[in-house]
Amino acid sequence: MEPIVIQNYINGEFYPTEEYIDSVDPATLEIVSKVPRSKAEEVDKAVKSAEAAFESWSILPPSKRAQFIFKIADLIDANLERLALLESRDQGKTVGAARMIDIPRAAENFRFFAKVISNPESERTTLSQNARGTPFTAISSTNRVPVGVAGLISPWNLPLYLLSWKIGPALAFGNTCVCKPSEMTSTTAFELCKLMVEAGLPAGVCNMVFGYGHEAGEALVLHPDVPLISFTGSTAIGARIMEKTAPMVKKVSLELGGKNPAIIFEDADINAAAAGCARSSFTNQGEVCLCTERIYVHESVYDEFMQKFIAEARKFTVGDPRNPATRCGALCGKPHYDKVISYFEYAKEKGFVVYGHGKNNLELPENVAKGLFVHPTICTNVPEDDKMVTEEIFGPVTVVNTFSSEAEAIQKANATKYGLCATVWSQDLSRVQRVPRKIKAATVWVNCWLIRDLHMPFGGMKTSGVGRESAVESMEFFTEQQTICSLFDPRSSS
Fold it and tell me: What is the pTM of this model?
């Protein structure tokens, strides 16, 4: 399969560039695509295009905007198989996960926000018979108006899934946008541009500029004509964006890192908890910000849980991502792979590893023998101040420690700078109402993981993020509230 030569998408046209970045398939190390290495000039051109399109797009009736967005969703569904294969080759995830989760959810993201604006409730009007200080009648109305050009920067772990979660609301609420996908996983973003053309989306409404974060991404963040930035990625980069944009007083939404805990109480369904924690630890090779990296088990059920947890972990077979039997694909990118392996080697040297063998003894088929694969890894008896417990690994590595009381479990769960999500496993109805409210995490799942109602706010506490996303929260971010007060003299009416 020849590498796909990706082009920037600006003002409804595709443009080549002078320099390209090689993007490789993590499973085979073959070049998947040639990604434009865009600079500030291309970003500026895209922003100008988005600015020019804003006036007409922002005043288009919501029902008309929804028609375009519904069409994009339908075209994603129609191209499911192709997009799933490209996502797998680009990112390293299993094609099954891309087919069942990533691509359908991308379509649903667009469809969800199209439905939201199809039933708008954004205007409030009040009538004051005695406007203060005058004999006149005042009519005040409050409505929401689009902000302008949105800068949307998405990560490499769920490429189309998370990019669509930004583009959908940005366009739905009347903004235009310039997107900067990860240079490591740009292929499905490029394919999305083609679908936008097919959907008839007006030129300039959505623009795509590819390249490195420190070049194209930084140019987008610092552009004076981009009043709002939505970013998903690491806490370190998110902090830099806040620092850079603070003097410019931009609206910023940041979805950042996590070191998510799970708590298994003595009255939990241990079979369900073991299966659920294996899924939350090793799904997508652990490359999901919501994955579990710390598991706290009541000491009375620790042995039973570990036996069943390891048995569940064994079901996450490592291998060719295009093989339907594979549940763990390759890690995305050599630097990230090296980082995860370094944590494994450290844990092994310290004697923490009870299951997993890193990059060794994987028995990979020849076509992926050189790929970036890591065996699911379980560590235990790790000191709470050790880096295995405190630092985000973002790979298929988790730590299991014990607790003896509810208070201790909550204290350990909260002993982190992050606050993205947590899971609680218990059959005690009083406990499952009480404990989640004491955990400092923006989302807490009880006896489940990664069940998402898109109407519910999503984001992070502490260093896991700034702002929330959902129907209402995304509307608040992608619009500004405007109050109009009109004064009338009733004596002049005929």
Answer: 0.96
- Write down the residue that tokens 């998947």 correspond to: 32
Catalytically active residues are 255
Contact 459, 255 (CB under 8 A): yes
- Annotate 44-72 with b (16+ C-beta within 10 A) or e (fewer): bbbbbbbbebbeebbeeebeebbebbbbb
DSSP letter string over 64-77?
HHHHHHHHHHHHHH
Query: Cα–Cα–Cα angle for 132, 137, 140, nearest 5°?
Result: 85
Query: How would DSSP label each residue in 87-151?
Result: HHHHH---HHHIIIIIHHHHHHHHHHHHHHHHS----EEEEESS-TTSSSEEEEEEEEEE-SEEE
Q: Which domains does the chain have, with CATH numbers?
A: 4-256+464-483 (3.40.605.10), 260-446 (3.40.309.10)
Q: Are 382 and 346 in contact (CB under 8 A)?
A: no
- For the stretch 142-199, pLDDT in tens is 899 999 999 999 999 999 999 999 999 999 999 999 999 999 999 999 999 999 999 9
Rounded to the nearest 10 degrees, what angle do helices 302-313 and 270-282 cross at?
Answer: 50
